[in-house]
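Thanks for the sequence, V.! I ran RecF/RecN/SMC N-terminal domain-containing protein right away. Repeating your input here for the record:
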Amino acid sequence: MSRLRIQRIEVKAFKAFKHLDFKLDGRNLLAYGANGSGKSSLYWTLYTFLQSAQKESTEVVKYFDKDRTENLIYRYASDDERDAAAIAVTLQDGAESIGRIYTLSANQQDTLNVPDILKGSLASDFITYRILFSFYHFRNSQSIDLWPVFEQEMLPFCQGTGVKDIAGLWKDIQEAKPFETSVALGESSWYRKKRYEKFDREVERFNTTLTGVLTSITKEAQLFYDRNFSQKKEPKLDIIVGMTRPTSTYYRDKHFHLAPAIGFEIKMDGAPISRPHAFLNEAKLTQLALSVRFGATLAHLHDSPFKLLVLDDLLISLDMENRMKVVDIILSETFADYQKVILTHDLGFFNEFRRRIGGQHIHWSFQHFKNPPSQSGSTLKEAKSEIQKAEDYLNGQNLDEAATCLRKAADDSAKRLREWLSKEKLPPGEFFSLTGNLREAKKRLLLTIPKQLYEKVLKGTPIELLQKLVPNSVADLDAEVGLEPAERGKINSKRGTLRKLLTDTHWKAMENVRLIDDVLATAERVLNPGAHGGDTPLYEAEVVIALDLIQRLEKCLP
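Predicted structure:
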């Protein structure tokens, strides 16, 4: 199946955007920005676009009609800009030379019942930090009720076992209003009774469907948790998501019905815990919440050429180690078919996510939401790494600025290299110098190489000569008539191991030691901002060499 991807997003006078024209070109998006910079506006732009495929025009145009109180028009827009408020999304698959543009505005809805977008609205997933808060914002004395967040953020993407999806069933129940309808039609008590009975049948159908949906979610949530978060040393943890109160039938004397309640409980080594938010810490609750939310995604996979996974500040309650576990999940084959949009206010997390992407970066766009000046609207700007900035400055012959960017990149890489080799994080808030981090990293590397081997064999010896130190031939062993074939085989195997140590394991460590020495030498001048003034200006060749060294230093990291 060919995959539809978003090529371009144009937004006029909607939410925080005065005018956004962003070319995504089919890539995934990783973007950061401070709260209020426009991240959530992009989230709701994409959500509104997809959901519009299954909504009547009156439910969509209200967001763009300046005369409607429900409008989401940019607050500082002029009258002309308000009239032109719109969302336009260009979709294209690999087989098409020209994309298809779909527009939403006060007088246009190109998406209604379009098969690819309709399927995409069910196959896609939108997840915000609110889903996590819903698991632990209850008081200790209260039981968790997930229905409010389930109705808003999960129900639209769930599929029941019947002909109509569960969101459609719930919508019918909400809109039925049997008493008001019967009175308006002037029906007799007999017809009114029949209307009530029909309503009750729809409620029972919904409850049965919801039970099946929650059973599927529980199963997938458990698998997700066991695969990604469960620890051998921890007690066995079982997830239970189910209705604690079904949707009520119609109260005929008071003319209303009750929405369902969805409980969340766990078992720990078989012992039931009815209020996990009063028992577990926030990090563990976040792991469970993520398992339930992604379980809902995986329980109701829809076949569609167009799939979006949009995450808005989802992982703010997790420490960096657990965040990166989730990043690995997002980058795994599980979500390979999705075009991903990841939004965060945490620059540190943005940078770690970007590093994790690594060699796949050509499939990603890295952007920064700019805090909008008054009345100018939010904008997106490419978020370049310090290395990329250095390359730009170097190309523009601004050598001092290029060197400053390289120093920042070197500081970051040296710190991470030291932490990786020592297998522990440096204390936050304390200063560690570039040279200090590099020397500690070098010390750790040298610990992996026997000292005499380093000093007398590896140091200064080209790899071509190292490869000749241990012969790859067994000819000399053939002359040893007393050797049994098995012994000859063992010796040859040991030679292979020794060759690998000399030319691979120890050689790589040696190469990294040499690289650190070269960076340390460069740190005295190119990477030292205090050395850029005076009578000795920087030369382009010096900065080019420093750029190559820092790029190689980054590649040392996993």
